[in-house]
Automatic annotation (TrEMBL):
This is Plasmanylethanolamine desaturase 1 isoform X1. The gene is LOC106486457. Residues 1-70 are annotated as: Disordered. The keyword RNA-binding does not apply. Residues 1-18, 34-49 have a biased composition (Low complexity). It comes from Apteryx mantelli (North Island brown kiwi). Keywords: Membrane, Transmembrane, Transmembrane helix.
Length: 314
């Protein structure tokens, strides 16, 4: 649910685990030599083609002359706001989150019984749907309201959403920590709460609540995975076969499906975990309805800050 983006300006030092994109107009790879190099050349060409395709998809009817991508002035400025302090927060979140996931998964398995099967299946399915809805709600909120200038949350959590719209493929250059740090941070409290139950509740109580905890656990896992799934939906080369299989069968967010969101002004298809809810929510005008209510109450215009960044040319 959290797009993370970090295009660096040409020539800027890359942060830990990151590569800076080459300036526009320069080849992305040195001229290939031999078969291996030729293959790398083809890979680079495929990536560049996919990026161009994505940049084109990101352009709205009014965006014809605008330069989207890593060289966009707004994208460069936003990328520079990715701080070392933020990087440390992401590392701590990822380590704590995955430790708690292992602990809770082990405990959950030890309380599962065969008779739980039907309710566990329903619980997992409901957990995935809830995660998809929450990914949409959070994504919509960050895309539509607030600004990068807001204290604390602006730079830490809204900035990546702004950057993702003007440089959609920056996310594909992020390492695991930068991609997943924010989502891991968000699931820490429910994961800690679940771990607390496993150490303090009686075995009888844990047996009783097992299906509910399966629902919560599936919800947490899919929220944690959302930005990785989102990154895959922007990746056009080198995806593992099983990821492509899951995308093709729409178990996780498919690439074509997510492209609908990336058409300016980015006002629909906000769900980015499985994308299952995008069509029904669009059909009932869910996001438009929420926007009208909020605009009526606060007077704020939806996506004003997003538009401001998109129009930045220097
Ligand atoms: Zn968006
Ligand atoms: Zn995206």
């Amino acid at each position: 649910m959290l797009p993370r983006a970090a295009a660096l300006p040409p020539g800027a030092a890359a942060g830990p685990g990151r590569r800076s994109p080459p300036p526009a107009g320069l080849p992305r790879e040195p001229p290939p030599r031999g078969r291996a190099m030729a293959q790398r050349g083809a890979e680079a060409a495929a990536t560049a083609a996919a990026e161009e395709e994505e940049a084109a998809a990101a352009e709205g009817p009014e965006g014809g002359s605008r330069r989207w991508g890593a060289q966009h002035a707004g994208a460069r400025e936003l990328a520079e706001l990715y701080s070392p302090g933020k990087r440390v927060q992401e590392w701590i979140s990822v380590i704590l989150c995955f430790s708690l996931i292992c602990f809770n998964f082990y405990n959950l398995l030890s309380y599962l019984r065969l008779e739980h099967t039907p309710s566990v299946i329903v619980g997992i399915f409901a957990g995935v749907i809830t995660a998809d809805f929450l990914s949409g709600l959070f994504h919509w909120g960050a895309d539509t309201w607030g600004s990068v200038e807001l204290p604390i949350v602006g730079k830490a959590f809204i900035r990546p959403f702004r950057e993702h719209h003007i440089d959609p493929t920056a996310i594909t250059r992020h390492d695991f920590i930068e991609t997943n740090g924010d989502n891991c941070f968000m699931t820490l409290v429910p994961l800690a709460n679940m771990a607390y139950k496993f150490v303090s509740f009686s075995p009888e109580a844990l047996y009783e609540t097992c299906p509910w905890e399966c629902y919560v656990f599936a919800l947490i896992i899919f929220i944690t995975m959302t930005n990785q799934i989102h990154k895959w939906s922007h990746t056009y080369f080198g995806l593992p076969r099983w990821v492509i299989f899951l995308q093709d069968w729409h178990v996780i967010l498919p690439r074509k499906h997510h492209r609908i969101h990336h058409v300016s002004p980015h006002e629909t298809y906000f769900c980015i975990t499985t994308g299952w809810l995008n069509y029904p929510l669009e059909k009932i005008g869910f996001w438009r309805c929420l926007e009208n209510i909020i605009q009526g109450v606060t007077g704020e215009k939806p996506r004003a800050d997003d538009m401001k960044w998109a129009q930045k040319i220097k």
